[in-house]
Every structure is written in structure tokens, then in C-alpha cells.
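Budget justification note: compute hours in this period were largely spent on complex prediction jobs such as the one shown. Inputs:
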Amino acid sequence: SQQGEEDPQALSIQEGENATMNCSYKTSINNLQWYRQNSGRGLVHLILIRSNEREKHSGRLRVTLDTSKKSSSLLITASRAADTASYFCATDYNQGGKLIFGQGTELSVKP
Amino acid sequence: EPEVTQTPSHQVTQMGQEVILRCVPISNHLYFYWYRQILGQKVEFLVSFYNNEISEKSEIFDDQFSVERPDGSNFTLKIRSTKLEDSAMYFCASIATGFYGYTFGSGTRLTVV
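Corresponding output:
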């Protein structure tokens, strides 16, 4: 399998706390992307980080990529109840080729 | 913001029937994809389509599946003879040549009974 694991599988935090999700993969990538999915809904692209980048920010999101460890993390700062969703990492090995998704982290943010 | 539109949002079909899932990608996008997500499982790649032909397909995408871009705007996924295990959420996606990430549609929930 080209894709590793995401952890944790589920994360429950209080509003205002930070949430960190991790993703590992097995072979070299062109880029790694994070997506959000509200229950039963579509996938929303959050952020893309290329293999030559180490960190990227978008609003309250911070993504890091460590190609030597083949891992990435997504940090959501100052979480809100509206951040409750499943978060998936997806690896792209050939820019614009197929995405390989992880199993996802189910985030619950309690008001 | 431009969207990928999928119809219908939910389709129920009898086992053995043919279904066509429809997608309207973003107008200036050139690469199109279908993915599926069986309930509670990870999102899986089915097929990619560029320049009016399949560029890559997964082992899931067997002879029962086909894709078409019949009129330059719609992008369809056809399942010829549905099985119970085809029940899933099917997502269409597209990307532009500039490539800043995929835009996914909101999905079609297919239920085979």
C-alpha cells in the first residue's frame, strides 16, 4: 500500500484548544493535501504542501511535511465547534495523478 | 467560487440495473476524476480522464464501469450492472493545469438494493 496511517483515528477536544492530526505515507510524493469532510458530505480541499516545502499556513491551519520521516501533520489552532468533521490526508505521487487517501481523523470539538 | 456539480445527490437502484452518475466539472479544468467512498471506509480512486481518454484506472474500475465526456461539459460514470457492493458515495473531482489542489463535488450516494 502506498499510504500509511493517520492518527489519531478520533480526537475530541474543547472549543479553543488546538487539534493536531498526523499522517504517514510510504513512498516519495509530489505533494500532500489535506481535506475536510462533514458527515455525509463532499470533500473540501484545505491545503496543499509540495514535497520541497516544510511548512504552510492558511488561516488557523498549519501543515508541516517531513519527507525524511514520510509524515505530515495538520494543526488547527483555536478550534471551534464548526471544525467538527473528518480530516483526511491524501498523497499525490505524480502531480495531478490519483490521490491516495488515508483513513481519516474524526475530530469532535465540544462547545 | 466555481464548483463541481454532481447529480443526482442520491440514487437508489435495483441490483443488476445500469446507473449513470453525472458531473459538471469546473469549466476551465482539464483533468477529471471519479472516486468512491464506501460507508465508513477511506476514499478510493477509480479513474482519471484527460484529453478525452482514461489516463489511469484502479483495479476497482473493471469492465462494469465506464466514463464519458459526451458534450464537452458533462463527465459521466456509468455502472453497467450494479452489485450490492457498489453502494457507496461517488465523488467527481477536477483540477486545473495550474494545480492548486482538487475540487470535489458534493457526491452522489448510490444505494443498490
